[in-house]
Automatic annotation (TrEMBL), chain A:
Protein name in the entry: ABC transporter permease
Record carries keyword Cell membrane: yes
Species: Streptomyces longisporus
PANTHER family, alphabetized: DIPEPTIDE TRANSPORT SYSTEM PERMEASE PROTEIN DPPB-RELATED
Keyword Transmembrane helix: yes
Membrane-spanning parts: 9-28, 101-121, 133-153, 192-210, 245-277, 297-321
UniProtKB/TrEMBL annotation, chain B:
Classification lineage: Bacteria, Bacillati, Actinomycetota, Actinomycetes, Kitasatosporales
PANTHER family given in the database record: MONOACYL PHOSPHATIDYLINOSITOL TETRAMANNOSIDE-BINDING PROTEIN LPQW-RELATED (PTHR30290:SF65), PERIPLASMIC BINDING COMPONENT OF ABC TRANSPORTER (PTHR30290)
Alphabetized InterPro entries for the sequence: Peptide/Ni-bd, SBP_5, SBP_5_dom
UniProt keywords, alphabetically: Signal
Name listed for the protein in its UniProt record: ABC transporter family substrate-binding protein
Signal peptide: 1-23
Length: 328, 605
């Protein structure tokens, strides 16, 4: 397994280089940040300021040379200059990754647990009222646009606050600005109050699709010969379900969730925007809008590493879940 | 300048609007709203002469007040090109002093806490004398002196601290002031009376002298720059370029939590991309002591989320660009007062004179501008939430400013008068008027493109109305959006025939005029050039008499209006909404924004 892991990591290096190179060329040609700088302010910057800006972001160098300088710089911890003044891209990247991680972690855990429970339940009780209800809500959450649902949740949050006369649920940011001096307990509840709404938003959307996967995969397994055999052998229903059926049914779910989580760690753009969490999603949107080459590349690099990492994790999980699979 | 809302934010706004429409059906809430431009406390702000005094009341001590900043602040030197942002000006004016402060009615007021008087004592050479308030002191105990003015001048004149040389790979070894206007005309700045009197002698006269050492660009503590660069204390006059650069960079990188300030509040905390916390400064000597316990500036970068945060009491005041949905949402929030004011930003159509046909025929341009109906444009866009909006008639001044004269409407430009427009063309011997327009020498006119920033619904409508208006003359127009990040490329590369965007007017219009209308000016993207205009504007900049400067600017503008180069449409509305339990906030549409008077903000008594 170790050899396999090392091999997979080594294979991913050329993938990373190729993908970053292609994206680098695309971003470099996506717009002209120097012209934007020259026209975005009033009074317009002096010619000296425009020239200084162009030199600062290396806009006057050939793209291939810039790419080489960038990639060798990254290996030494230098992420390159941003078009935004005073922005340390490395610091920005990891701060934002932490923010997105905070936002996503709880949501994904809740979504996963609920998806498995409801998916299995729905499969076992196929075509019952319970199955129809779960299916109905699954499709409802799937069909609901996130930006609409999130805003609706915010209104519900405000209604809750008004009814309870409290300020428990927050709609903006990770925490209230003035609680730094308050007690630990208040800070804790403030954090929870700010996490609640975006977590529900993210969790419900992922839950909706994952519960469909679990149900489908569970149904397939329940109808297979070995499960029938297990039942015929007289094993207890619970043992058949959990040890034989569920374990197999989780294999496709492992792939789907691993990839979904990897992608969402690259930024839950809409949820982050609506709840004003300054995470990876906002970073991507800002970088693209300002043609910020090095910042976009930093985002891409981390997101690519996360996707590759979670892909590997999914493959390794196969081995744990399916005894027939061995990596040598 | 503010960024335009993206397609994403538009979608969010629409969704928010829908949700609120649903919410409104079930709730009986909503107090203090009216169909006029304002409500409750801010209702009198649009009345003539009330802009600077409306929403006034006595305050009681205590309370935390959270105001929204729409962008993060990354660079703290507002005098620097990179740091010259609206949000930076808003945050710094709370803690740093400036001589003249722009007011909501677009006039400027002397900041008597900093200087007891600022007068022009001579005109040849132009001499300015500032008497510093004897109580004025940085909060580390160092008095504010002439040295702070000397440091300001020498870092901003473009000569004593020059821009970084090309050989500097980091591009940090030098000063890049946002504008050297005025400072480059100063001959000397000297202190007397123990440094409490500052005498400025100009080498060349400068009409907008009240802009110096303030107007949104406050003073930084020179003694800190001297200390950290190893220069002699109190001797900014002899600092080297390298020493000044060190100070310049220090103020770029460090928020004012790190160095002594001299305002009603001190900034006690800055959390990047999140918020600034201000607390009353015990060292504040000014006439008005802040009554708030705490003032917070919270960064919310998506304007559509601001009304929700206001409703949830997470913020107490918002200052977003108004849109129909947003204004309606705020109207439904109880105990919130709001004001729609006329801003200093003005929307306009520009013609690109680099286009050979547009550049050659003045009659064609006049006809095009005359055929456009600004009334139609307004009624289909901004008038939907601001019925009081009017056509703007000047390129340098807005109504309310002393120099304002309507020079445009009398020419018929923007009237939609088709007969008059067609007459321009037939008189100039154009053919195919109303069908397929051709120049007198038989060349086809157009098709022209009309360009606007993508996702901006208002500007899209403006291009559409222009398209149908010009079709009546036989001119075909195609509408071509500009990618979110490409406005700069399009402007600087002259990649347009007709473009619609906004300029920001200023209480000090001569510098803007020099940038935008003079041959080769940094903002003169369409390539307008007229020797007489150049000379009139140069004279306006160089006079010591402001009313004479205004007359000269208007004389130049008359020539420019006749040349039909830029058609002003209307002033963009601004929108301030505040909870009614707080008072003394006003809609200041200038470059300093509503926080121009934070010392007065407080809980209503």
């Amino acid at each position: 397994m170790l050899a396999y892991t090392v091999r997979r990591i080594l294979v991913s290096i050329p993938v990373l280089i190729a993908s970053t190179f292609i994206v680098f060329l695309v971003v470099v040609n996506a717009g002209d940040p120097v012209a934007n700088f020259a026209t975005s302010r009033q009074p317009p910057p002096s010619k000296a300021a425009v020239a200084a800006f162009a030199r600062h972001i290396h806009a006057d160098e050939p793209a291939v040379q810039r790419y080489w300088n960038w990639i060798t710089g990254v290996l030494h911890g230098d992420w390159g200059p941003s078009v935004q003044p005073n922005l340390d891209i490395g610091h920005d990247l990891f701060t934002r990754f932490r923010v997105t991680l905070t936002l996503v972690a709880a949501a994904m855990l809740i979504a996963l647990v609920l998806a498995v429970i409801f998916g299995v339940f729905s499969a076992i009780r196929q075509y019952t009222a319970a199955d129809y209800t779960i299916t109905f809500f699954g499709f409802l959450f799937l069909a609901m646009p996130v930006f609409w649902f999130a805003v609706l949740l915010k209104q519900a949050g405000i209604w809750f606050n008004e009814q309870t006369g409290s300020q428990f649920l927050g709609t903006i940011g990770e925490k209230s600005p003035y609680l730094e001096v308050d007690t630990t307990w208040n800070q804790f509840t403030d954090r929870i109050g700010h996490l609640a709404l975006p977590t529900i938003t993210l969790a419900l959307v992922s839950f909706a699709s994952w519960t469909r996967y679990t149900r489908a995969s569970m149904l397939e397994v329940l109808n297979s010969d070995y499960v029938r055999l297990a039942r015929a052998k007289g094993l207890r229903r619970r043992t058949v379900m959990v040890r034989h059926a569920l374990r197999t049914a989780l294999i496709p779910l492992a792939t789907v969730t691993a990839l979904d989580i990897a992608i969402i760690l690259g930024g839950a753009v809409i949820t982050e925007t609506i709840f004003q969490w300054h995470g990876m999603g906002e970073m991507l949107v800002e970088s693209a809008a300002t043609v910020d080459v090095y910042r976009t590349m930093a985002w891409l690099l981390l997101s690519a590493v996360v996707v590759i990492g979670f892909n590997l994790l999914a493959d390794l999980l196969y081995a744990v879940l399916d005894p027939r699979i061995r990596y040598d | 300048m503010r960024a335009q809302p993206s397609a994403l934010t538009r979608g969010l706004a629409l969704a928010a609007g829908l949700v609120l429409a649903l919410a409104a059906c079930s709730s009986s809430g909503g107090g203090g709203s009216s169909d006029k431009g304002s409500s409750a406390g801010l209702s009198s702000c649009n009345t003539q002469g009330k802009a600077n005094t409306c929403n006034s009341a006595a305050t009681k001590s205590g309370g935390t007040f959270t105001y929204v900043l729409e962008k993060n602040i990354q660079q703290w030197n507002v005098q620097d090109t990179n740091g010259n942002t609206f949000e930076n000006a808003e945050a710094l004016e709370v803690v740093l002093p400036q001589v003249f402060v722009p007011l909501p009615d677009f006039t400027v007021a002397l900041n008597k806490d900093l200087v007891t008087s600022a007068t022009q004592t001579g005109t040849s050479p132009q001499t300015l004398v500032y008497k510093i308030n004897p109580k004025a002191v940085w909060n580390d105990g160092t008095p504010v002196t002439a040295d702070d003015f000397v440091y300001y001048w020498r870092t901003n004149d473009g000569k004593d601290c020059p821009p970084p040389p090309a050989s500097d790979s980091t591009q940090t070894k030098g000063c890049l002031p946002q504008s050297t206007a005025g400072y480059d005309r100063i001959k000397s700045v000297t202190g007397s009376d123990g440094g409490r009197t500052v005498t400025v002698v100009m080498a060349k006269p400068f009409s907008d002298w009240k802009q110096l050492f303030g107007a949104g660009y406050p003073l930084y503590p020179a003694h800190i720059a001297e200390k950290l660069s190893g220069a002699k204390a109190g001797d900014a006059a002899h600092m080297t370029a390298a020493q000044m650069t060190q100070g310049w960079q220090y103020f770029q990188k460090n928020p004012p939590t790190k160095y002594p300030t001299a305002g009603p509040y001190k900034m006690t905390q800055w959390v990047d991309n999140d918020h600034a916390t201000f607390e009353p400064d015990p060292k504040w000597w000014g006439a008005t002591k802040p009554s708030l316990q705490r003032l917070i500036f919270k960064v919310i970068s998506d304007a559509t989320q601001e009304p929700i945060a206001l409703r949830n009491n997470e913020v107490q005041a918002i200052y977003p660009q108004p849109e129909v949905d947003l204004v309606n949402q705020v109207k439904s929030i109880p105990n919130v007062t709001y004001n729609i004011g006329n801003g200093l930003q003005w929307e306009h159509f520009d013609l690109n004179l680099h286009n050979p046909v547009l550049g050659k025929y003045t009659a064609l341009r006049q006809a095009m501008f005359t055929a456009i109906s600004i009334k139609d444009i307004m009624s289909k866009t901004v008038a939907q939430f601001d019925p009081s909006v009017k056509q703007l008639g000047n390129h340098n001044y807005v109504p309310g400013q002393a120099g304002y004269q309507d020079l445009v409407t009398a020419t018929g430009q923007g009237s939609g008068d088709l007969t008059k427009a067609k007459k321009y063309l037939t008189d100039a011997r154009f053919t195919g008027v109303g069908t397929a327009l051709k120049t007198p020498d038989g060349q086809a006119v157009g098709p022209f493109n009309c360009r606007y920033t993508t996702g901006n619904q208002i500007r899209q409508s403006e291009c559409q109305i222009l398209q149908s208006d010009l079709a009546n003359l036989g001119v075909k127009v195609t509408i071509k959006p500009i990618g979110a990040a490409d406005l700069g490329t399009v402007l600087a590369g002259h990649q347009y025939d007709i473009i619609v965007f906004a300029w920001v007017a200023s209480p000090f219009p001569t510098a803007n005029a020099q940038q935008n209308w003079v041959t080769g000016g940094g903002g003169n993207y369409g390539g307008y050039s007229d020797k007489q205009v150049d000379s009139l504007i140069a004279q306006a900049v160089g006079t010591t008499d402001q009313s004479k400067a205004a007359a000269l600017l208007n004389q130049a503008d008359k020539i420019m209006v006749d040349a039909a180069y830029v058609l002003p449409l209307y002033q963009k509305p601004t929108f301030l909404a505040v909870q009614t339990r707080f008072v003394n906030m006003r809609n200041n549409s200038t470059n300093v924004g509503p926080p121009y008077n934070t010392a007065e903000w407080g809980l209503k008594k």
